[in-house]
Amino acid sequence: MNLVHDAWLPFRLQDGSSKSLPITAICDPEIVDFFLPRADFQGAAYQFAIGLLQTVFAPEDQEQWEEFFEAPPDAETLQQAFDKVAHAFNVTGDGPLFMQDFDLLESAKPTTVAGLLIEAPGGNGIKLNTDHFIKRGVGEVMSLEMAALALFTLQINAPAGGVGHRVGLRGGGPLTTLVMPAQVSATLWQKLWLNVINRETWRYDEPDLHDGSVFPWLAPTRTSEKKGSEIYAHDVHPLHMYWAMPRRIRLDVEEKTAICQISGESAAQTVSVYRTQNYGANYSGTWSHPLTPYKSNPKKPDEEHLSVKGQPGGITYKIWDSLTLSSAQEGLHCAQVVSHFYELGYDCREMIGDYPRLWAFGYDMDNMKARGWYASVLPLFSLEPEQQADLVQQVKTLQNLASNALWQCRTQVKAAWFDKPGEAKGDTAFIDLAFWQQSELAFYTAVQQMVENAAQDESDLSPLQAKDWLLALRRVCLDLFDDYALSELGNERSMAKRIQARRALAGWLFGGKEIKRFITDHHIEFNKETA
Fold first, then answer.
1. What are phi and psi of 313, to 5 degrees?
2. In angstroms, rounded to a whole number, what is the distance separating the alpha carbons of residues 443 and 436?
3. Angle between helices 492-511 and 513-521 (to 10 degrees)
4. Do the Cβ atoms of 202 and 55 come closer than 8 Å?
5. Neighbours of 129 (CB within 10 A)
6. Sequence-separated (6 or more) residues with CB below 8 Å from residue 369
């Protein structure tokens, strides 16, 4: 099977049906999306297609980028470009195989193919019978198509995997951020092309597509048993980032018809086991993967930049600035595809239509354990690159006030619930999630107002706009407290305790130090009834 020739990816069409087609179908106006059975596979399919386009079909400049956005190439033109790398996309056959080790790994012990799934329990979890919530036995037989996608998903997201099983180039469990059209009717081509960077913006040498500098599986594996074997960004071509391969894996493909446990469909070529060896490519130092945001230490610019990763609680506006903006002062570096979008210019962004959104997704990893998969769609705003640093500072003010309000709300809810709230145990993350969800509309409204004010050479929020934000925080905090702490009557003693906690929360919301500073800084005026 060859991934740039054969029909192996399922697509969703305009009429809602699905069909497996060659990768060149991405230019078909009837195709609106991929149609994968797993969220992580869906995200991986996007990264596969974007990486392929950037590698062999990147536009020379902005003008060509605009031409292809408005009028996609035909399938024949796209196939000619993809044929340049067909030798690197064989999944079966003789010679180097896609995302698989250069060596056959014949001495490695076979392991179940379910191990390619990031959330699958490891050998120790199965041995100790601790796979209570993520069960063993899922995906023990895969079609060759799903096994190839599982392999790619693992390589681009690889978490820590035990001694010598290397982490991915972006670190374990990185967030991916893609610019997406706002229109529901947008074609898959438009969704992908928004994340392809023109060569005038991203300058790099013409790649050698045969020597392993872009596709590492085409050359003998650079193993990492010893120190000094690290791979740094200057050691490979920049396009290597799309195809980084930290794990040493070989699939055992069988000509055996079976039901794929991922897709639920019958397959003639299946995979039940694979072989793996530790000490594969050891990526180190600072990278700048085009699809991922990074953070750095502004006080120590030489320190390694770290990718933004999934965290408990999901993807909320508390990290919106980290995903969408860049600021050297704050050490924020949005993904290159987001920067490229900002740099397209106002006229080009107008051509795209309704302002695009940001699709952010990724695993929340605890070392080698997957705690969850998160995906969110966040707003982007019409913003010039030079405005970002000032906006970051203003956004931080809103986020910090929100975080302080949440802490006060959570603390007083626990004070209402428990006699000794400081000793109370248990997960109260549901309070945090409800807070971020219920206050996000007010937050994004405030950010939109700040962007519009900047366009008029006005700084920050107006007093009335800042007042609206503050009132929204107060309302959300008090509503959440009432829902969680006053929804039942209880006895007289418990009611007195809850009323006292509510007064403490209201006292901070109306007179806390941070609240007073926000009111003073934004010149907010209240009458006596609402102060």
1. 100, -10
2. 9
3. 30
4. no
5. 9
6. none
Taking the C-alpha atoms of residue 334 and residue 193, their distance in angstroms, rounded to an integer, is: 18
Interatomic CA distance for residues 420 and 423, integer angstroms: 6
Is residue 91 within 8 A of residue 2, CB to CB? The reply is yes
Q: What interhelical angle do 463-485 and 492-511 show, nearest 10?
A: 170
Which pairs count as long-range contacts for 518-523, CB under 8 Å and 24+ apart, including other chains? 518/397, 518/401, 518/466, 518/470, 519/470, 522/460, 522/461, 522/463, 522/466, 522/467, 523/463
| 3-class secondary structure per residue, 343-361 | HCCHHHHHHHCCCCEEEEE
Q: pLDDT (tens digit, 9 = 90+) per residue, 317-355?
A: 999 999 999 999 999 999 999 999 998 877 677 777 778
Tokens, residue 306: 């770290």
Spans in the chain with pLDDT lower than 70: 122-137, 347, 488-493, 528-531
> Angle CA(21)–CA(40)–CA(171) in degrees, nearest 5?
125
CB 267 within 8 A of CB 154: no
Query: pTM for this structure?
Result: 0.93
Hey, how many other C-beta atoms are within 10 angstroms of the C-beta on 514?
A: 14
Give the model confidence (pLDDT) of 81-120 as tens digits: 999 999 999 999 999 999 999 999 999 999 999 999 999 8
Report the C-alpha gap between 115 and 69 in whole angstroms: 39
In three-state form (DSSP H/G/I as H, E/B as E, the rest C), the secondary structure along 422-486 is: HHCCCCCHHHHHHHHHHHHHHHHHHHHHHHHHHHCCCCCCCHHHHHHHHHHHHHHHHHHHHHHHC
Q: What angle do CA 407, 412, 417 make, to 5 degrees?
A: 130
And the tokens for 26?
């991405």
Q: How far apart are alpha carbons 508 and 510 in whole angstroms?
A: 5
Q: Are 363 and 153 in contact (CB under 8 A)?
A: no
Per the structure block, which two tokens stand in for 137? Answer: 């036995």
- Please state, in angstroms and rounded to a whole number, the distance separating the CA atoms of residues 72 and 70: 7
Cα 291 from Cα 491, distance rounded (Å): 55
Q: How many CB atoms lie within 10 A of CB 423?
A: 7
Residue 49, SS3 per DSSP:
helix
Q: How far apart are CA 308 and CA 208, in angstroms?
A: 30
Q: Do 353 and 181 touch, CB atoms closer than 8 A?
A: yes
Single-letter amino acid code for the residue at 339 = S
Confirm if 181 and 190 have CB atoms less than 8 A apart: yes
Per the listing, tokens 């000509």 go with: 255
Question: What single-letter DSSP state applies at residue 385?
Answer: G
For every residue of 56-99, DSSP letters joined together read: H---SSHHHHHHHHHSPPPHHHHHHHHGGGGGG-BSSSSS--TT
279 touches 164 (CB < 8 A):
yes
